[in-house]
Amino acid sequence: MSNIPTPHNGARGDEIAKTVLMPGDPLRAKFIAETYLENTVCFNTVRNMLGYTGTYNGKKVSVMGGGMGMPSIGIYSYELFHFYEVDSIIRIGSAGGYADDVKVHDLVMGIGASTNSNFAHQYHLPGTFAPTADFGLLRKAVEIAENKGISVKVGNILSSDTFYEDESNAKDLWKKMNVLAVEMEAAALYMNAARAGKKALCMVTISDHLFTGESLSAEERQVGFRNMMEVALELA
Question: Which ranges carry the Nucleoside phosphorylase domain (predicted)?
Fold first, then answer.
């Protein structure tokens, strides 16, 4: 295909599987590939956004970092959907908890992704678009988690353009709307999937809580989300 390799992805031809797991951190992608996949091949090192393809339980699976924020995952997911003929992207990331019943280490799946981003402006829609997960992926992911005895919460999450929020009460306002947690990528992923006619799901592990002050270390965030990783691998 004439569009590949891209300036951001060095993969060629059929080096990428139809389903891609996409953590934000490329080192988490490396950890997943080295820990869980067999016959692993690294297909991308451009900008150190590491990408790998291997097999899990005999099935071809890829895992690739997506970076931080909607512009970054917007680029990588767009290219995967449109240029590499990927069918499904499963984001596996970290998030900050909002809801009182969400705790550190909890697994949360975003049925919808509210956002303060202007990402949807490019589509020139005559209204407000609501980014949502693919229901088939979501339903299967919940079933896998439940069969493993993993507690999972499903609801609305926030994809924010700002990590350091200048408006001090913003988190309180989102919490009032029953938003479970905040991250920075899902809305762009969901919109890219909708526009391409493809499938996407965001599942996150709560790494810190914005109201209780609980928090995990950077190392724990990189390698400690095994429940989420294993659910995503079985889903793939």
Answer: 19-222
23: cis peptide before it, omega within 30°? no
The answer to the question of residue 80 being in a domain is yes
Domain span at residue 185? 19-235
Q: What is the pLDDT of residue 223?
A: 64
Q: What is the tens place of the pLDDT at every residue in 35-72?
A: 999 999 999 999 999 999 999 999 999 999 999 999 99
Does the annotation place 12 within a ligand binding site?
no
Whether 208 is catalytic is yes
Does 7 fall in a domain? Answer: no
Residue 184 lies in a domain: yes
- The CATH number of residue 92's host domain is 3.40.50.1580
Please determine, for residue 222, whether its predicted confidence score (pLDDT) is greater than 70.
Answer: no
| Amino acid occupying residue 174 | W
92 annotated as belonging to a binding site for a ligand? yes
CA distance 118 to 227: 32
* Tally of domains within the chain: 1
Helix (H, G, I), strand (E, B) or coil at 120: helix
- Over 70: is that where the pLDDT of 224 sits? no
